[in-house]
Task: structure prediction
Amino acid sequence: MDRPAISVIIPCYNEAALLPRLLTSIETARHAFRGGAGRIEVVVADNTSTDGTAALAEARGCRVASSAIRRIGAVRNAGAAAARGAVLAFIDADSEIHPETFNAIAAFMDRPDVIAGTTGATMERWSPGIALTYVMMLPVVWATTMDIGVVFCRRADFDAVGGYDETLKFAEDVKFLLALRRLGRTRGSRLVRARATKVIASTRKFDQFGDWHYLSILWKGAWYLLNRRARDAFADQYWYKSGR
Result:
């Protein structure tokens, strides 16, 4: 078989409820890919789920990798280790991707002046609290060219920066993009935003904690930075023990 052009890597912990929605959107984008649907590989990195996530992924034709380490960076890296594509694309299981995602990624990765990129996201629902949170993040995105959504890079560059930091409970994606940006500067290449292919991001954190909850996180941000115990407790409550 030909080597996949793009490997889509989906870290999962008990995502049986939302994973089918993402996989359906990936299937649509695969068939829209001008390089051929067969050149897109889907890898589900399962973090010891107990709800049948791995079986569901296998039934949908995905490759399944496993990671027992409860760190999101380790799960992403496990998926990357199993992937065979020349380009790696990481996406959260509670998202939906744009039909032109793979065409946009392939076009950017064909350019020597691009080291890596993100698609950005729009939200699956809006409210005043969610809109304010979104707007508050925009200056950071504009200043850094780092966004959320699908994160993509060449496999060789993923290996060159050492993948994701497995010691972090969160913000591993920020550190990863910073490392790629530093690598790109040594080559005269840059991070890009594929804004025409934004993902639809889940609002389940807002559903769970309230539409205005992010303001309290920002208020406590300095404390979390200074106090590792508080930071880890926050990460456990917000991501790792969220009830899924």
Q: What stands out?
A: Residues 53 and 149 are 21 Å apart (CA to CA). The chain has one domain: 6-240.
